[in-house]
């Protein structure tokens, strides 16, 4: 587990729960340093075609939204910064409004076939696309067909990997197509042979 993750997630109430349940608590050692994304995290994030984005509203209610795009639409700008283009959507702007009140966000990234998951904590800034063409230019290659209205830039504070337990492997349509391609070829070949008999 990363240092900063322990510091952020293991609050006094969490530690008290651990103490009550197991007779000991995993004491964090705060050192003020943020976690930096390493090669494994950067590669994992760059390959994702979706993630879940958690934010908190002014009343303290948590909120989660699914984000999706072409693989790499969540850009790793550097070891402490992530960014993605916010496309024209349902016009609710719940996450955008939440972030205006409280910049703290949590990202939850899944790789179902590999049964891996990564949690990332950070502080988000929402930039108006019209005022920041440099960001639009940078993120556009992985954006969808809708116009980019905003850009989310996330200063990463902490991350943590979870174990693969209880993750059911699931495959996207593209992944299934890739896996069955040799089988389809083989079927086509056998059909050709049958037709020649
Ligand atoms: C036409 C249309 C296209 C959308 N395209 C995407 C998309 O490519 N990726 C995505 O994550 N959400 C997409 N959405 C969802 C919205 O952008 C959604 O408003 C956005 O995730 C903001 O959600 P929030 O208000 O819950 O924060 C789309 C919605 C609509 C109506």
Explain the overall architecture.
Strands 2-1-5-6-7-4-3 form a seven-stranded antiparallel beta sheet. The longest helix has 24 residues, at 173-196. The termini are far apart. It is globular and about 75 Å long. It has helices spanning 3-9, 12-22, 39-47, 94-101, 133-139, 173-196, and strands at 50-56, 62-68, 75-78, 81-87, 104-111, 116-128, 148-162. Strand 1 (50-56) and strand 2 (62-68) form a beta hairpin. The protein is built from six helices and seven strands. The protein has two domains: 1-33, no CATH class; 34-171, Electron Transport, Fmn-binding Protein, Chain A (Pnp Oxidase, Chain A, Roll). With 197 residues, the chain is of the alpha+beta class. It binds flavin mononucleotide. Flavin mononucleotide binds at residues 65, 67-69, 87, 89-90, 92-95, 144, 146.
Q: How would you summarize the topology of this molecule?
A:
Layout: H1 3-9, H2 12-22, H3 39-47, E1 50-56, E2 62-68, E3 75-78, E4 81-87, H4 94-101, E5 104-111, E6 116-128, H5 133-139, E7 148-162, H6 173-196
Bound molecules: flavin mononucleotide.
Flavin mononucleotide binds at residues 65, 67-69, 87, 89-90, 92-95, 144, 146.
